[in-house]
Amino acid sequence: MNLNQGKNKKIFLLRGQKRRILFSFLCNDKCDWNLQQLWIADWTPAEMEDVMVTDDRGDRKTDASGEIRPFGLRDKIGYMFGDFGNDFSFIFASNYLMVFYTKVLGLSGFVVGLLFLGARFVDAFTDVTMGRIVDYMRPAGDGRFRCWIRRMCVPVAVASSVMYLYFVRDWVYWAKLVYVIFTYLLWSSFCYTAINIPYGSMASVISPDVKDRASLSTFRSIGASLAGLVIGVLVPLIVYETDLEGNQVVRPVNFTVTAFVFGILAVGCYVLCYLLCQERVVFAKKEGKKESVWSMLAGLGKNRPLLALVCAALVLLLATLLSQTMNNYLFLDYFKNAKALSVVNVVGIGGTLLLAPFISVIVSRIGKKEAGAAGMLLAGVVYVILFFLQVKSILLFMVLFFLGTLGTGLFNLIIWAFITDIIDYQEIATGRREDGTVYAVYSFARKVGQALAGGLGGFVLTAIGYISEAPAQTWEVSRRIYMVATLVPGICYLAVFLIVQFAYPLTRGEVEKNTAILRNKRQEQAGEAGIQRDEKST
User: How far is residue 515's CA from residue 246's CA, in Å, rounded to a whole number?
Assistant: First the structure.
């Protein structure tokens, strides 16, 4: 068989009932891509699985036409919609599930806190297990990670929606508990895990380029911000109303309707993410005996950047979600203006969207670590100032709140790029590519932060004397709500600043060095694979 019959020649491999297209791209001195046809008639299935098909950036070159489109805006928009879909359930649950459980179902904050904390013990197994599955399971025809978005988009939407069935309030107490435990675990520990971990891991195979990954992180944060904007503005207007005595009360039926509408919107967002994103980076099949879980955890335990980011994420989510949860009670019982909560949510999202167009410039000039640390310092200082001022003016609160969100928004716009940098660091340190496992550990830390926020919120509400059945709280209880909503986030944001500044080691220079090492590694592996096939064909 002639190895140089021409460019853009497709070779179809029959394996089972699937046809696969294999290309090996070699770059000449002018960096033009030429296709070398390979003789593969006598390859074994294992040999075919080992092939790495990449260019000098690590990008895979294959699609139906033989020419894959380069990384671009389409991928960014698609990845943005992925987190948009995620947060139709995640942000909605983080902000309003506690309210639904306490105000609609009548559960105590202490019981809800125990549920949120207990679920994290389940997540300790399901998150890591899902990470291992996506790392070691044979990729589907549509990629290693995209296939999970296709499989799980409907189940996660259904699981999220059934958590908000208003008629459960009429059940006996033990039946309510069974319902709450089952539906929450189904969504959080299984369905959401099965789509979020592959989605988050997918960023490392959409492009290996540092700037591309930073842009994916930015667009992911924009997606989260847009979801937060929709939820933050519309939900207070839909689920709250004012009674005849001027108190803010919830509308149970509207919780259920809103949850199902969000579920449908989430599926649409996931479909767009699946259609618009493309996996480009292919890695060699993992050989030898599968690494044990304990050995894997021991290796991750030596990953200093991962440990630092896990600690930072845990504290960050605790602060952010506790603040979001307590803001509901803050505007209901302290400011006594639930409608203003919509405006405050717009102000909060506005800081992130304002920074988004400039994030690439900020990162390229000062680095991700450096920018993130500065953002957390700003947010911490602003929240501590809010605590000491004890403001009663909603307008003044909004102004200071906006300044704080500039800091948190800056960090959130780049935090997902930290993960891809850590995945690269792990590969250099251990020689193994473990996208899903690394992301699973980080995802678990985020869930712990979410649980601590919900659990601590429930415990704090009980401790300060909050009575969920009461139409209005005493002034002393309202004042304590304000203290928790400002001081705790302020302390936590300052703690994140210290972690990122002094414990996280991946400076801009280190990231650029790691990227160069892996680019050279991809080139060598692709070249070796091509040489081996050429030798075998002769």
Answer: 59
Q: How far apart are CA 149 and CA 196, in angstroms?
A: 8
Range of the domain at 230: 72-282
Do residues 264 and 383 share a domain?
Answer: no
Cα angle for residues 287, 22, 428 (degrees, 5° grid): 40
58 assigned to some structural domain: no
Which token pair is 366? 């000062």
CA distances from 448 to 315, 441, 454, 504, 534 (A): 9, 11, 10, 20, 51
CA 180 to chain centre: 24
Burial class, 390, CB count within 10 angstroms (exposed 0-12 / middle 13-18 / buried 19+): exposed
d(CA 460, CA 480): 9
Q: Are strands 18-21 and 25-27 parallel, antiparallel or unpaired?
A: unpaired
Find, among 123, 161, 82, 112, the residue nearest to 447 by Cα. Answer: 123
Q: How far apart are CA 436 and CA 144, in angstroms?
A: 10
- Strand 248-250 relative to strand 240-242, pairing: antiparallel
Q: For the chain, what is the domain count?
A: 2
Dump the DSSP string for 257-283.
HHHHHHHHHHHHHHHHHHHH-------
State the Cα–Cα distance between residues 524 and 519, nearest whole angstrom. Answer: 9
pTM attached to this predicted model:
0.68
Contact 43, 16 (CB under 8 A): no
User: Which of 369, 242, 382 lies closest to 305 in space, CA to CA?
Assistant: 369
Q: Residue 269's closest CA among 367, 414, 153? A: 153
DSSP assignment string, 415-454: HHHHHHHHHHHHHHHHS---HHHHHHHHHHHHHHHHHHHH
Q: Are residues 345 and 411 in the same domain?
A: yes
Q: How far apart are CA 445 and CA 439, in angstroms?
A: 10
Exposed/middle/buried for residue 502 (C-beta within 10 Å: 0-12, 13-18, 19+): exposed
Say how far apart CA 335 and CA 337 lie, in whole Å: 5
Q: 425-430 contacts: CB < 8 A, separation 24 or more?
A: 425/303, 425/305, 425/306, 425/506, 425/514, 426/299, 426/300, 426/303, 426/306, 427/518, 428/514, 428/517, 428/518, 429/299, 429/302, 429/303, 430/299
- Do residues 306 and 269 share a domain? no
The conformation of residue 476, written as its DSSP 8-state character, comes to H
Say if CB 410 and CB 97 are below 8 A apart.
Answer: no
Query: pLDDT by residue (tens digit) across 464-488?
Result: 888 877 777 788 888 899 998 999 9
Question: How far, in Å, CA of 67 to CA of 55, rounded?
Answer: 12
- Using one digit for the tens of pLDDT, what is the confidence trace for 36-67? 223 233 333 343 333 334 333 334 444 444 45
Q: How confident is the model at residue 74 (pLDDT cuts 50, 70, 90)?
A: very high
